[in-house]
Amino acid sequence: MIYLKAFVVGGLICTLVQIFLDNTKLMPGRVMVLLVIAGAILGAAGLYEPLIKWAGCGASVPLSGFGYNLSKGVIEAVKEEGAIGLFKGGLKAAAAGTSSALIFSYLAALIFQPKMKK
């Protein structure tokens, strides 16, 4: 059942973003930033964590999940370290995912030798 929940929630998030992209003149990069900000705000308000607990990866994998992860890291770091946690928390919380993405992208580029389009 967890797979169905993840599929429905992840699909719903992606569908809403696609509708937003189709009906506004915002560039995709700005929409991605809005997703991260929305996840951070919902995470800071305590609304995103119940969704992640219910839907699992369907809510944590989209960019809004990344924003939630950043806000969660900042909140925890501020509780532990005070004001310096504002700067350290997000970086610490997102370091593993960001590092993994960079490492695996680099390995894929080495293996498949991508070329520029002409």
From TrEMBL:
The UniProt record lists the keyword Transmembrane helix: yes
Transmembrane segments: 6-24, 31-48, 93-112
Assigned keywords, A-Z: Membrane, Transmembrane, Transmembrane helix
Pfam families (alphabetical): SpoVAC_SpoVAEB
NCBIfam families linked: spore_V_AE
Matches recorded under PANTHER family: STAGE V SPORULATION PROTEIN AC-RELATED (PTHR38450), STAGE V SPORULATION PROTEIN AEB (PTHR38450:SF2)
Name assigned to this protein: Stage V sporulation protein AE
Organism: Anaerobutyricum hallii
Gene: spoVAE
